[in-house]
Specification:
single chain, 122 residues, Nucleotidyltransferase, domain 5
Length: 122
Amino acid sequence: MAKLTDQQLRARRHVRLRNKISGTAQRPRLCVNRTLKHIHAQLIDDVSGVTLASVSTVQKDVAGALNGGTGNREAAKAVGRLIAEQAKAKGIETAVFDRNGFKYHGAVKELADAAREGGLEF
């Protein structure tokens, strides 16, 4: 059998995670996606299939506020703080963390920690 690529392994981890977690309107799913250049975070209500809030380093106002790159740990912290602010503005206090198959370290961990510091519980 051929060796699996990193993308295939991440996809397998993602499927295992999504079988266990789901978001509701009261407790949405905080989905994190990381690329080499950008970091994205969304609060998703899976019951009605709606994105409640989203923040990304692709957005000009977010990218403009960052001094360094848009795919590093500092950018992840900024995205985590902003998604927590948007959640509080919509009355959301708790969420289910979906790391989207990414390993929980580096930028993904920084985003989660910043969201927790911003007042979001998961």
